[in-house]
Design brief:
The protein has 80 residues and is mostly beta strands. It is 0% helix and 35% strand. The protein contains no helices and six strands. It has a two-stranded antiparallel sheet. Strands 2-3 form a two-stranded antiparallel ribbon. The protein has a two-stranded antiparallel ribbon with strand order 5-6. The mean pLDDT is 84.
């Protein structure tokens, strides 16, 4: 059995995998059979957001406080 490492997966994301058997060589490869998709595999919910949040408004409040309203990042890479 051969082990495969999948790189560049995003945190807090679910993936499914499948195997493809091919025949031929180089540009002449053709799929022969496909496996059923795997069960869902989720990456760990950690890491900094891969996109910044979108700031909608900033308000100055009394006593040196501010109120910031924003939309969450497209890929938060964890719970917000």
């Amino acid at each position: 059995m051969k082990q495969v490492t999948v790189l560049r997966l995003k945190p807090f994301t679910s993936y499914q995998f499948r195997l493809v058997a091919e025949v031929g060589e180089g540009d002449l490869k053709h799929p022969l059979a496909y496996s059923a998709p795997s069960l869902g595999v989720s990456t760990k919910p950690e890491g900094p957001p891969s996109t910044p949040p979108m700031i909608l408004s900033v308000q100055r409040l009394p006593n040196m406080n501010i109120n910031i309203t924003f939309l969450p990042p497209e890929f938060p890479n964890g719970k917000m």
